[in-house]
Amino acid sequence: MDWKRILIKRDKDTHKGDYGHVLIVGGSKGLTGAVCLSASACLKAGAGLVTTAVPESLNHIFEIKLTEVMTFPLKDYRGVISPESFKDISKFVTRKKVGVLGIGPGISSGKGTKQLVNKVVNLKGPALVLDADALNVLDVKESLKKRKNRFIILTPHLGEFSNLTRVPVNEIKKKRKKLAKEFALRYNLILVLKSNNTIVTDGKDIFENSLGNPGMATAGSGDVLTGIICGLASQALKKAEAGVDIMKVLFELAKMGVILHSLSGDIAAKSLTQACLTASDIIDRIPPAIKKGSTNGYY
Length: 299
Known about the structure:
alpha/beta, UDP-N-acetylmuramoyl-L-alanine:D-glutamate ligase, 9-stranded mixed sheet, two-stranded antiparallel sheet
């Protein structure tokens, strides 16, 4: 796939729909910032349209905070999205032709959230990106194994991966590549195992990232990565030719997302220092990171 053509220079005869519509589901009382970070990063990474599906009682916060991003208020209970909202999400995805659905940033981890997330995993149509609390409530044996949607990316950090596998973090550190590859193969998905030297695997091939810096260990950094991956997936799937292996496309864009995220963090740390780095700083450096990555052949 010609990433330079997609990310650097677009066709003259084009419109926002050519770069896909992303829906990011999340947010809860006290955790509204996570969705805002993901949505902003998604748009900055090139998605044509981005909508946040958020608790109705908190919608006014997102309406004020987000400018270019749209909001889709959902039924909630005390600031947490209700599982009853699944029908509304499903209808929205079909009606608005959503190509990528990200879920998890700031969504909370209660019983209702668990019901909602495990229903979304079975949603046919869009590629799915699961992060944060969506991973903590995910039913691996039932929903993940028996899901109807083939095209899914999981982005756990070591603690979340430990919850998914029931393997202690110390053991995971000793054999990250082996465990990541086995998990991705067993469940037929793309796994982005976040840590120092993040790993991306489809169960067959494996990529280990060498970019990034300790300053990126900051609140919201993972939410930014989720947004970047959603934004890249949106464009990639719109541009993918008929008959192409979608899983291969998702694997390549997940790698690119990790690289772009790390490059953005490195550029930010160079001018701001690692100690002062924030998630918003990473988003601001996505444009120069796209240029640098393209020029240096990272993607």
